[in-house]
Amino acid sequence: MFNRKISFLLVLSFCFLLGMATKAEVGSVGKGNGEGVVDFDLTGEWTQKEIEYFQKKEYVGDKERYTPYSIDFFPPYLKGKIKEELEKYGIIGENGLKEIIREGKVSKLELLRYYNLLRDEIYARKGFVFRNSYLKEFFGMVNWYKPTSKEIALTGREERNLKVIEELEEIVKNTKVVSGLFSKQVIIKAKWGEGPGEFALEPLPESYEYRTSFTIDADGNVYIVDPNNQRINVFSKEGIFAKSIPIPEQLIYTYKDEKTSLVEGIGIDKNGSVYLPSSSTSALLTSGGSGEVVFKIDAKGKVLDSLTFKGYYVSPAIFYESDNAMYLWGDWEGGIVAGMPLEFGGKERVIQINFKQLRDNSFDRYKKSLNLGSRKIKINYDGTPVVFSESRNSKVVFYDGRNFVFQDSDGEIKTKINNRSLRPPKTLWFTYKEYKGVSVSAWPYIDSNLNIYCLDGTSTHLQVVKYTPTEEIWK
Prior knowledge:
This protein has 475 residues and is an alpha+beta fold.
């Protein structure tokens, strides 16, 4: 019995000493020498900014307060530049850190080096003797480092600080850099104006938003709605202006003595017919009625047919062709996300739809699938996809209004990228007539090759940007 107690105490003592040593080793991260393992190279020249920061940094022992996911965790010598980026997006904290990494505003290696040094500083301040030659070299250049012991004890606050730093390191390691996942190309630049191929920039008065829509046909031609000039501008895939298609007069109304149109989407089928939806037609506005009207027009703007979904509207209005039929897809009034087949068959046909019709072609959140006629697309996501496309190898990209989600054929999400990471903020800080801070708003388009197209704007022109994903995005 006595020997058992001695054995137990010896084991307990050994575990305690091992724990003390382990605490020291956790803080000392580098390559080799048994001082922890990292998955990147910590070697290389120390920057003068790194040395100066840790040389001059004030430290108040275990009372120093590290704020989790704070701006304070960015390298102070980069804080000005990074803070500008965060203020531009209006975000800070964990999401802010992910955003600047995704956009390549600061390198992952730079941040990981900083977090390693920030963590090892806790040990260096206590006089820990590093075995790692790189850490010896770095802290040997700061006058406050006095190595005295290979065994140190950490306070509870210091342990929590280390935990926070480790969490930040995981965020950095697990965030994909967008610049390495896409190639970016501006394919169309069209001036603001009223001439051929130009766009009249007249924002909605209540929101200062320039709202439009665009689509791309099977040949790569781009159709962009120009609401204030009451037309559709068509560009070739090379970005050359080809022609304009007039918007039907039924979609044009007068606001403050100026003509405009509110077209809430655009689609084009394989025969070249164009589809324009709106819940703000001249007839609806005059009668005070409600509903979604879809006009089918030819390449010259002549109305071929129209459908009115009485009492219901859909937002956003997205078109998708399947089973030789065109579907109007989106979030219908009543909270059902569905694609409705457009069966015209007669001039100015009025349809009283019911919820069962919508459910037959709806997005099933539980089974996570999209139903379009006889086709079913598996979507492994709990949100509501509103723009989507599927490639020949069953890879899927969809956009839910905030994120572009890339998934493979078995439904596994490979990459999820916030829309903000692909394009600059929508707000354009310039003055147009009496307006300031105009924003350009349009839903993106995804083709069958899974390229993403976004509308963007500057103070001089409206542009279409094409993002081509690399194979890295599927890994």
